[in-house]
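Hey, resending since the last one bounced:
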Amino acid sequence: MTNKLCRTLMVIAALLMAVATGLGAWASHGLPSVLDQSALRAFETAVTYQFVHALGLFAIGIYGAGRRSGNALGLGAIILLGGILLFCGGIYASSLGGPEWLSSLAPAGGVGLIVGWVAVGAGVLLERSGPKA
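The C-alpha cells again:
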C-alpha cells in the first residue's frame, strides 16, 4: 500500500467519523420526535457501524504507512469503504423513509464489511516482514 493511499484512507476515515458524530448528535437530539423507536434504533446502529469501521480504516492507514504491505491490504480497505457507504447509507435511507430499494443496499454493504476485513487480515498475513527500508 502506498503512503498516498494510507493518507487518503486516513482523511476519508476522519471525514466519516466527523459525519458519524453529526449524525449521532442528530439521532440523539432531533430524530426522537420524528422517527419511531425501530427506525431510530436502526439509525443509531448505522452510526455505530460507521464509527467502528471508520476507526478501522484509520488504523489500516496508520498500519500501512511506511510498511511493505501488498495489494490485499489496500483492496480490503477499499472494500471496507464501499461496505460502510452501502451498509450505513442503506440503513440511513431506510430509517428516514427513503425509497424502499435503498434498504436493499444494507445487506450488500454488510457482506462488503465482512469481505473487507477478511482481505485486510489476509493482507497482514501476506505482508513482507517489517517496515520499508
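Residues 3-126 form a domain with the Four Helix Bundle (Hemerythrin (Met), subunit A) fold (CATH 1.20.120).

Sorry for the duplicate.
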